[in-house]
Amino acid sequence: MELLPVKQAIATPVFDPFQYAVELPHEIVLHPLGFQMQLKTNSREIIQATEESWGGFPALFTDKSIELRVAVSDDRQAPCPSTLVWRAQRNLLTLISDQNNFAICDLHTGFAFSWLAPATARSHDFFRYYYLDTIVQVLLWQTHLTRVHASCVARNGRGVLLCGASGAGKSCLAYACARRGWSFITDESTALVRGSSERMALGKPRQMHFRETAAGILPELDGRLAAPNAVGKISIEVHTADLPAIQTAFQCRIASVVFLNRQAGAPAHLVPISAQDAFDRLDSDLPLFEEPVHEEHRASLRNVLQAGAFELRYSGLDEAVNALEPLVR
């Protein structure tokens, strides 16, 4: 019997206009703000930057996980951008710098995909501030957390939110408290756990950020490098690991909410304010989400304000810390 010749298989290219086949061989699992995150990428720079932001956080929750995929192109000529535009409808959020740098987030499933230029991956500060940290926090704000523009410190198991506009002295006062034996939780943005009867707050205690002028208030910062951050503001970043006398914690229970009112020459003292006044101040800075999520955020603010709200009028940091002490005894 005559054998027919076997036809050789010819590999044909796969039509992949959406780049589904891009290989993402590097993977890391971390726990930003206590929630599990799986990140896959083709760039070791992305892995390193992700560890800089979220490495070392403990696993605190098991009821929510998020997934990020970050593909870095081979376009060596594309520059790192300088800005970002957010837009959202329903469950889809886009973060777009240009055609070479963008991300898409599915708020319902906790999944995000980003396409970046190599220059953007190398710029860890830009990637962390505009893309990574933004994506992680927005995915968690949708389901579990509420953002408050506040520093947070704690003592004797009792946390205090330090709220105020930029320049009110939140970071300096948080550091002054930590220097006096308080635990440092965070200095930029505090995350409230929605629905927590214990008014639980989460933070990022691994870094502190100060304005360049802070060195005139805190002499120990003198000589540290002040450089433009990702948004172009001159700032000093200090790693709390380099400050062995500073205690840190990833979470605390909020016992008081304090709004800072720095006044030249004013003796430090606390003035009680109404829950409605305090709510209006926090609500004005609350990012808008679609309902019912937005109302859940507002309920989270009302919940934390049950702890009591005050305005701290102060000039000097040491006197301000003294005025806060009764709140945590």
Q: Can you characterise this structure?
A:
By secondary structure, the chain is of the alpha+beta class. It folds into two domains: 26-143, no CATH class; 147-328, Rossmann fold (3-Layer(aba) Sandwich), CATH 3.40.50. It has seven helices and 20 strands. The protein has helices at residues 44-54, 118-122, 124-143, 170-179, 275-283, 293-305, 317-324, and strands at 26-30, 36-41, 65-72, 85-89, 92-98, 101-106, 111-116, 145-148, 150-155, 158-163, 183-186, 190-193, 200-202, 207-211, 227-228, 234-239, 247-248, 251-262, 269-272, 309-314. It is elongated and about 75 Å long.
Topology:
Layout: E1 26-30, E2 36-41, H1 44-54, E3 65-72, E4 85-89, E5 92-98, E6 101-106, E7 111-116, H2 118-122, H3 124-143, E8 145-148, E9 150-155, E10 158-163, H4 170-179, E11 183-186, E12 190-193, E13 200-202, E14 207-211, E15 227-228, E16 234-239, E17 247-248, E18 251-262, E19 269-272, H5 275-283, H6 293-305, E20 309-314, H7 317-324
Parallel strand pairs: 2-3, 3-7, 10-18, 11-17, 18-20
Antiparallel strand pairs: 1-2, 4-5, 5-6, 6-7, 8-12, 9-10, 9-11, 12-13, 13-18, 14-16, 15-16, 19-20
Helix pairs in contact: 1-3, 4-7, 5-6
Mean pLDDT: 87
Rounded to an integer, what's the Rg over CA atoms?
A: 23 Å
- Low-pLDDT stretches are 225-232
Q: What would you say the CATH architecture of the largest domain is?
A: 3-Layer(aba) Sandwich
Question: What's the CATH C level of the largest domain?
Answer: Alpha Beta
Strand content: 25-35%
The figure for the number of domains is 2
As a percent range, the share of helical residues equals 10-25%
In angstroms, what separates the terminal alpha carbons? Answer: 97 Å
Helical stretch tally: 7
The count of strands amounts to: 20
> What structural class should be given to the helix and strand makeup?
alpha+beta
Based on CA inertia axes, which overall geometry fits? Answer: elongated
| Succession of helices and strands | EEHEEEEEHHEEEHEEEEEEEEEHHEH
What CATH calls the topology of the largest domain is Rossmann fold
Major pleated sheet: 10 strands, mixed
